[in-house]
Amino acid sequence: MPVTIRLFARLREVAGTGELTRELPADATVAGLWDQMVRDYPAMAAYQPSLSCAVNAEYARFKSPIADGDEIAFLPPVSGG
Amino acid sequence: MPVTIRLFARLREVAGTGELTRELPADATVAGLWDQMVRDYPAMAAYQPSLSCAVNAEYARFKSPIADGDEIAFLPPVSGG
Amino acid sequence: MPPPTAITELVLDPNRVVDAVSGDGDGAVVTFLGLVRDHNQGRRVTHLIYEAYDALALKALDRIVTEAAEHWPSVRLAIHHRTGRLEIGEASVVIAAASAHRADAFAASRYAIERIKQIVPIWKHEYFEGGDTWIEGATADPDNEEARAHARKLACP
Amino acid sequence: MPPPTAITELVLDPNRVVDAVSGDGDGAVVTFLGLVRDHNQGRRVTHLIYEAYDALALKALDRIVTEAAEHWPSVRLAIHHRTGRLEIGEASVVIAAASAHRADAFAASRYAIERIKQIVPIWKHEYFEGGDTWIEGATADPDNEEARAHARKLACP
Predict the structure, then answer these.
(1) D73-95 exposure pattern, b = at least 16 Cβ within 10 A, e = fewer
(2) Chain C residues with CB inside 8 Å of B78's CB?
(3) Which listed site, A45, A59, A67, D35, has its alpha carbon 20 to 30 Å from C70?
(4) Which of A8, A10, A80 sits opposite D116 (nearest CB)?
(5) Please, are residues D57 and D39 in contact by the beta-carbon 8 Å criterion?
């Protein structure tokens, strides 16, 4: 199933783009997708301990399942304000 | 010696004016002047426990002496802000 | 640059008070606006008239700025207080505190409004449906250390 | 009336954020302005670029407004955050908290800025003399009750 991946700040720079698409198996989780990202972009591994994620613009857990067409975002530590 | 008396808020209303002049003896104090005010305007007596005073636009004590030409102000409890 | 303290009959402009304090090194500006409320202690307020002993009120504001600088040296503080007739929703006082540190900016602006209510010779004449009354708050005494400590405590950090 | 929360590339107008919250019953409005400083950790900053996950950032701001309403029911809160390129002295965030009670208005606005730094998906790209760097602060987790309690504690009363 197709999903959209959103990347921000340093993660966006590492990937060279803020938006990717991937084809995932039906039982995919956010954690599994992140593992795939780290394989594709090893420099992202450093963010593992401090990462947040969102599914369809709602904060989510890494164990959350992914559904067809979802938008998954990986968020480095935030610095608004 | 001549002095100017400034009155504010309720005290101004009691006296019917915000500014008075009085002729005082050379050894006058703020407390003595206030006693004279209360004699002239008995309704002011209620303010005795909560009153502040100033001499020449500086906060002062009631025991402060008064000099020729001073401006003495009597201030009911404040309510700025 | 606007002055740090002012007593004025003109409508207050919060941006102008902020301009009096903020510089390129500041990351935080906290402002406090005191507004005329449409009610007070069950009365339906129609408007207020603020009376001030202008010369002393300005000195009292300056004193508060000095006190705040002692407590929070990183802060620059400005206080503009209006006098005369004010309608509902209008600002009677605008305080701005700028600092590199937001905790200090919050503390100094809170301290300032508490001290204003304690020691600045300004009086609120409240006009409400059915009458009017002078509001009488604190006996002004800048040397009352207990009052100052109370304001310091309310400012928190 | 302006919206209570906004993520925008436009210059922020503090008066507009105040207008989003203040009503005739409010005696106090506290605003917080976050400004771009000309220095950070010894670096001479030239400008910042703020990047946001807009859709989630707006929801996070709404969440903070809801949280503040739980803690301080008397307060109405508005938060506008800017994105894109900001010059020194410009406001990156404007918070306004209106209440009949000044203590609550101070507390809610302080709470809001602490929570923004904890959970709103916005990132600061700092450009300084000699380079640039991403500022990385808190791992965003709205369900982290410890972080929320910390923000509550800093808000004081």
Answers:
(1) ebbbbbbbbbbeebebebbbbbb
(2) 117-123, 136-140
(3) D35
(4) A80
(5) no
B26: left (phi over 0), alpha (psi -120 to 50) or beta: alpha
C27 contact residues in D (CB cutoff 8 A): 34-37
CB–CB contact C123 B6 (8 Å): no
pLDDT in tens, B24-35: 999 999 999 999
Q: Do C157 and D157 touch (CB under 8 A)?
A: no
pLDDT of D45 > 80? The answer is yes
Q: What are C106-115's pLDDT values in tens digits? A: 999 999 999 9
pTM above 0.80, yes or no: yes
| Whole-angstrom distance, CA of residue B73 vs CA of residue A6 | 69
In chain C, which residues have their Cβ closer than 8 Å to the Cβ of D15? 14-15
Q: Do A81 and D141 touch (CB under 8 A)?
A: no
Taking CB atoms and an 8 Å limit, are D51 and A8 in contact across chains? yes
Mean pLDDT value of segment B61-69: 97
Closest Cα partner for C91 from D12, D15, D74, D3? D15
User: Which of D53, D92, D111, D135 is best to mutate for the A interface (most A CBs within 10 A)?
Assistant: D53
Which chain A residues are within 8 Å of D138, Cβ to Cβ?
A: 77-78
Instruction: State the DSSP code for B50.
Output: G
Which residues in chain C have Cβ-Cβ distances shorter than 8 Å to D14? Answer: 14-15, 18, 31
pLDDT in tens, A25-78: 999 999 999 999 999 999 999 999 999 999 999 999 999 999 999 999 999 999
Q: Which residue has the tokens 């993520």?
A: D7
Looking at residue D11, what DSSP letter applies? Answer: P
- A9-31 pLDDT tens trace: 999 999 999 999 999 999 999 99
Q: Whole-angstrom Cα distance, residue C3 to residue D141?
A: 43
Q: How far is A8 from chain D (nearest CA, A)?
A: 7
pLDDT for D138 equals 94
